[in-house]
Amino acid sequence: MQLLASKDKERFIIETKDLKINGNTLSVTIVRRKENTSPLPVILTNNIYAGPIDGFFGKRAATYNYVGVVVNTRGKRNSNDVNNPFEHESQDIYEVIDWVSKQPWCNGKVGMIGGSYLGFSQWAAVKKVHPALKTIVPQVAVGIGIDYPAQNNIFMSYMLQWIQYVTNNKFTDEADFANAVKWDSIYTKWYKSGKAFRSLDTISGKPSKIFQRWLDHPGYDGYWQKMVPYREDFSKINIPILTTTGYYDDDQIGALYYFKQHHLYNKNANHYLVIGPYNHGGAQSFGFTYVNGNSIDPVARISIDDLAFSWFDYILKGGKKPEILKDRINFQVMNTNTWKHVADLDKMHNSSLKFYLQDKKNTSSVFNKPETKNFTTQIVDLKNRDQKDTYYKVSKKDSIKMTNSVAFESEVLDKDIIMSGNLSGVFNVSINKRDFDTDTSLYQIQPDGKSSLLSTHIVRASYAKNNEKRQLLEPNKMEQIPINNSYFMSKKIEKGSKLLLLVGVNKSPNWQINYGSGKDVSDETVKDSGEPMEIKWYNDSYVEIPVYKD
What we know:
Layout: H1 2-11, E1 12-21, E2 24-33, E3 40-47, H2 52-63, E4 67-72, H3 89-101, E5 106-115, H4 117-125, E6 133-139, E7 150-151, E8 154-155, H5 158-167, H6 174-177, H7 180-193, H8 200-203, H9 209-215, H10 222-225, E9 241-248, H11 252-265, E10 271-279, E11 290-291, E12 294-295, H12 304-316, E13 329-333, E14 338-342, E15 351-356, E16 375-380, E17 391-393, E18 399-401, E19 405-409, E20 417-422, E21 424-431, E22 437-445, E23 451-460, E24 479-482, E25 488-493, E26 498-505, E27 533-538, E28 542-548
Parallel strand pairs: 3-4, 3-5, 5-6, 6-9, 9-10, 10-13
Antiparallel strand pairs: 1-2, 2-4, 7-8, 11-12, 13-14, 15-28, 16-27, 17-18, 19-26, 20-25, 20-28, 21-24, 21-27, 21-28, 22-23, 22-26
Helix pairs in contact: 3-4
């Protein structure tokens, strides 16, 4: 470490400053290469994870021949202000860019980079674009209010762990965050207790105003909308943007939400997407050899850093456009060792398969619409907290957890298919409650008997048609629940495989539990569960699988 520190002193000028921004103190780290004496474009990162990573981000930019500037959010490092994650980025970053653009080492051009929260920060920055901000590279960007702290309006238990991670001290509480045993026991204790989700912070021993405030906004309302561009705001974003995400990225839904909204509201959006077999870490660093147990095609093992900084060279220094960006959407088709390039998301596929909720035993093909209407009944006792997990036996080698789900298996595929895009479709259901949270998974069962996950989808039924406004179900009446914002995948599924579709109810220590009473789900307790939940899944329900045919 001493040797590295002495090398840094030889190569870089590293300064730290405290800026007064909007009446608050923000700590800034500036890194320049010693041999660069002329003003350069600045690569700015807005970072809530204050610590050694600030120096790394700054040095990375300097190594690629830029000035690296990293600003920490309110309440971090030397700031004594209140740390309210996500809430002030839009206004603070505008002022930081203004300050940066006027410094003698800046040539007046600023670009931004970073992943996850740091990706969200860039979308916050373009709520009102500063004239000096010339491009952003949001990687695996958190879709605030879209995929975190709630995914499709279902709050996740993990949000409390994350809040404590970034607010326990002026840096990050690594030991607490990594204490999986502690957090698992907190989630399990809450789950077993049957108490309201709102009590999770008290059960953890550390009440949290932030946790409570987030729970007060179960719909995508003004609280979330003001943090990032909303609807027509996207039409005013006219700087070039490069988004990266992955098929296994926890924030893929958020990253794609911004991409879709930008293109929806701005027909001339200069916004590129690179997506491949990457997880949350990989899509902001480099393509790994294995992801989620899958061997990754050699062509996908690219450096996301090199891609990002070659993009900066292209936009900020008049360099060559990165080779991979042959069209707006650039996606790697797993198991083919190829990239494909299309102008919009709809062109990623040119056909589809509708997988109806029926079993191969009752039909020649699950992909044919049933001739007679029928349903599969599922009963879930939400009171039962000692339920044993159940598994679907795929083969002698493999089984898949299917607790609180109903399984539908397809016939053996007689040819290769390329799935490319998002699952869509509709569930036609009748339920004896006013609400429930659906849980859907699509698996490939390979010819060798191993399974691999293709896509998942969860949604609060009452928000499925409109994530801003709750529309409760009418008990025992046929209702339609659309499937939107599922996980995106592009993969060749080999001939001889089968598809396994699991549909059911989201009931887990990792998420809020929706008892179906119609009350605010954060306030519901096991006492609100009443009789067991009974769902009729009608066989004209289908999950539509996007398919690319040559």
